[in-house]
Amino acid sequence: MEVRYLSGSEKERCRSLWEEAFPEDSAAFVDYYMKEKTKDNQILVLEEDGKILSMLHRNPYDVCVGDRMWRCDYIVGVATAKEGRRRGYMRRLMERAVSDMRAEGMPFCFLMPAAEAIYLPFGFTYIFDQPEWELPGMRMQDNTLALRRISSPDPGTVLERAAEWMNAWLRQRYEVFAKRDAGYLRRLIKEMESENGILEEIRENGKTAGFLGTWGLERPKQRLLFSKPSLVRERDAGKPAVMGRIVSLPDFMKAIRLKEEAPVKRVTFYIKVEDELLEENQGAFFWTVDRHSSALEQVSAGEQAEGKGEITGVINIHIRRLTAWLFGYGMPEDLPAAADFIRPIQGVFLDEVV
């Protein structure tokens, strides 16, 4: 029994397991995935006698995090063949994948869970609620509005302009989101087209006012809607959709800083992190935070909090709770008072399907 990454020429071998595990996906969507997404992803498998018994796909995205750009993996396609279930195969793959990401210096990874309970033991927690907006039908009767379809064969300049508009729209509202560019949109359009979907530009008085994506083989449903606030209304404030976990703790902490209104210029915490999956994250650190960034310093064996000089406070926290806090998804109640000076990430938007 071996755990390894498939080579490019081998990736098609995982199709049968995908079809077994995800029967709700149409043949056209699986065709799209195998042709497009496997061009640049990594597929980790557990196999025995040449048969793939379990798999995990690492799909890379360039993620904007404030003024930083990180390459982060979206974990998808986690599945085990029926005859191999309840034998710990998924755990072996998850442990290997996250360990490899840590070695690569990846700040965090994310996934869309089939069930929250599956991923809690691996340190994942919700970091994004999917909001729902709608474009009222009455607005489309307004002669100042028009829809213009955007297709994957369109020139790169058309897609780049659309991507720039989307990035600007996202940046006004969120600090964490996958960067759009011509390649991202071309692939997104092919994804939607695999299930009879389209991407349309919303134009108001001849100018770009948003983008609407729909797809669905039987009944079209909204895939995305980015638009000027005046044109849309919120249907739902959001339901938990995406879970994430900090992978390389030192790299992630570089994005965290003090709030502008903090009464101090720098604080140092003695922080003890519990992370059963990643030994590198487990243990005690001096965590120094200023107005621009933050940094961790590993505490050597036997070294106490007093060894750093003036310590602002002591934090004992599990990696799951730390992830939720620093992604702005919920602040633990048992933190020292000075922890309120910490500025977590303000807004996450990760709506990718695969």
From TrEMBL:
GO terms for biological process: aminoglycoside antibiotic catabolic process. CDD domains: NAT_SF. Residues 1-145 form the N-acetyltransferase domain. It holds the Pfam family SCP2_2. GO terms for molecular function: aminoglycoside N-acetyltransferase activity. This is N-acetyltransferase domain-containing protein.
